Structures are given as C-alpha cells and as structure tokens.
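Lab notebook, bench 4. The sequencing result for the construct came back, and we need a structural model before the next group meeting so we can plan mutations. Quick request posted to the team channel:

Model the 3D structure of this chain.
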Amino acid sequence: MAKHGKKYQESAKLINSEATYEPSEAVELVKAATAKFDETVEAAVRLGVDPRKQDQAVRGVVVLPHGTGKTQRVLVFAKGEKAKEAEAAGADFVGDADMINKIQQGWFEFDVCVATPDMMSEVGKLGRLLGGKGLMPNPKAGTVTFDVTKAVQEIKAGKIEYRLDKAGQIHAPIGKVSFNAEQLNENLKALMDALNRAKPAAAKGVYLKNIAISSTMGPSARVNAAAFR
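Done. Here's the predicted structure in token form:
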C-alpha cells in the first residue's frame, strides 16, 4: 500500500471513510487540506450507466458559477474577422496555419482549443497530437463554433468539460481549497445539475450512485448522493 505523509494522515483523521456526509459537511472536511499550495478540489461521481454502450455515454460542459480557480489559456483557430473577434474576447493565442505549424513543432502552452467550423479540416491534421492530450476542439463541448466570443468568455468564466470514463465515472474540478464553502457548494451543485440534465434516456435504475470530493493531496469524503437526485 502507498504510504501517505503526516499531513495526509492528519487530514484523514477528520474523515470517516465509512461515513457519508451531507454536501456542506463534506466541503468543510475537504477544505481542511494542509498542503503548502492551493489544492484543487475535485468531484468523482459514479453513474448508473454502462460506459460500453454508446446510448449511455455522458459528456457535456458546465459553467461553474465561481470558476475553477485556474486561469485557462485559450487558443483559437480562426481567420479574418473571427480571429479579430477572438482576440477582442480575450483569447490568449489566435491563428490558423501558423498555430497549426507551431503545435506540430511541439508547442502546447495552452489549456483549451476553440476552432471555427471552417478551420476544422486543417485542425484535423493535429488529431493525434491534440486528441492524445484531450485538447481537440469538439462541437459537443462548444469548442467548434462561429460564436468565438461566447466560447472564449465562457471558458474564461469557468466552463469545464466532463466525460464518462471507462469505469463509469466522471471526474471534474469544482474549485480550490481557498474558495469559501458556499462557492464550493454552489460549484458542486452546478456540476450535479448538469449531470442530471445529461442523464441518458437508456439509463435505468439509480443514476447518481456515488459521489466523493477530495483535494489534490488529501483524502476523499463521500457525499450523500440523494441530496442531488
């Protein structure tokens, strides 16, 4: 078994691994993180779906009301007026063939990619490079669009993408331990509301099975899933 440091062990004493907490209680316990940096708080949600079946796939985006606590560096692939629009909206990097070539040379100093639909035939050449890092623009995530102003502003405001993994779980950041409890609670509720809206019609039985939240270096606290059903 992996050994944990003293700070982790001290935090773990506060959390009963067998207990299930109300959302506000779980948030307070996770906020007791003791790392020297501002840890990210993440939610892990097990859904009652079969990840092997396409009609039970769960994927989408949600704008967290208080953001993630991280400034996202946005790259927009666009030309002409749309490029100017992206720059005005606050995109960190804007370009077309020049940016494609830069990425082919190994540059990845960005967190999110947005592309106008007319650029996708060219951006598609980066499929292997961007796809492997989860950076490929996608219509379902709202990152392939002519409304680049909305896309950039939402990302900067705290939009995150969630996607079901092979184990049937969703992992998503909901803020930082420096956030106050109300901010983390509201971000968690926004994520849960989005997951409920994304429930596949083919899903049967209990949909929100288990929820846990944890900080980067700390133990997790199980959350009462019934609070969000």
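DSSP finds eight helices and nine strands in the chain.
Will bring this to the meeting.
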